[in-house]
Fold this sequence. Notes:
Elements: E1 3-8, H1 15-25, E2 28-31, H2 32-38, H3 45-54, H4 67-74, H5 78-103, E3 108-112, H6 119-122, E4 127-132, H7 135-144, H8 149-158, H9 162-166, E5 171-174, H10 179-203, E6 214-215, H11 221-235, E7 241-244, E8 254-255, E9 257-264, H12 267-272, H13 274-279, E10 289-290, E11 304-309, E12 316-323, H14 327-341, H15 343-359, H16 367-372, H17 374-391
Helix pairs in contact: 1-10, 3-5, 7-8, 14-15, 14-17
Amino acid sequence: MALTVAVTGGIGAGKSTVSRMLAELGATVVDSDRLARDVVAPGTPGLAEIVRTFGPGVVGADGALDRAALAAVVFADPEARRRLEAITHPRVRAAFDAVVREAGREAVVVNDIPLLRDVAAAAAFHLVIGVHAPDEVRVRRLVGRGLAESDARARLAAQIDDRARARLCDLWWSNDGSPEALRPLVADTWRGRILPFRDAVLAGDPAQRGGPVLVPADPGWPEAAARLAARVSRATGGGRVDHIGSTAVPGMPAKDVVDLQLAVDDLAQADQWSDALRDAGFPRVPGRWRDTPHPPADEPALWDKRLHANADPGRTVNLHVRVRDSPGWRWALLFPAWLRADPEAAAEYLAVKRWAAVDHAADRTAAGYAEAKEPWMAEAYRRGLAWARRTGWHPAG
Length: 397
């Protein structure tokens, strides 16, 4: 499938400006508002369902949807708005998917979409770009387009705020200046991230990554993990995905790598999902993968897994695919829970990580870094299990 990018932002923020620039660079751009009009045009099943739901008063004398009349019904009624969205959103998504299929695998298809409201909606795209600007700048732009100031402010107030929107976005661009100020950023992202992302998905290759470098804890890691986990879950029809590893421990310096774990019934299911994960941007890493068994007496095969990684060069991800309730699956969930609950254990682990990162700073991969931590991890496994027994911890969900 084509690489899909959502460009979102509040009214007057400049998302359409970004979309136009991406079109100039070669993207196929779809106007979500246009699709929303098309799916409720006269004679469509969408319009018929709206009339059944809200009554004939929302249709004008010409047989077309009377948008002002419909807005009067749904604007101040959240439940009515949800009923409307249940009619229109699936149809708009189906129309967009049709464009993606027709565009071909080598295309980049951009959806200019103002109403990206939740993580589940964002998960339908490989990448989400958010565009924002201060409210006063946005109001000034809207007034310049002929809108009354009071109407402009009302429209801003009716949309989700930028903090909620930012959580849905992989890239968050400020656009408080002239349109031309955005052009270098758009071009650099196209050449340095979007096209390499597309090429890696087509080839089924993970993005390149370097050796172990610890960075200060990033408060944005959990939100990034939530976005990525939603994409993995969507690709697998609702599979369970958890944020694991050091970036799941608040305040802990770590490699800038989001570790996720996908639960499967067995490794045959993992293999069945491999193509879907690749198409979603998480190609399989070749080779046989097995976590270090703890304790050594355990059956080694119980620690087998599949490993996928990101194709997006702008965000490093390890996706560990493990059998549900296997010892490796349980330990991956238990370990960060224990560290979150035991600051002394977390401090010990950080010291080990720092030593291993320095000792393997020249490595081109993180393999040596991971191996250097194993002696401490062997003892940590015993201590972690003891903590779980003492506290009654068990994997939630």
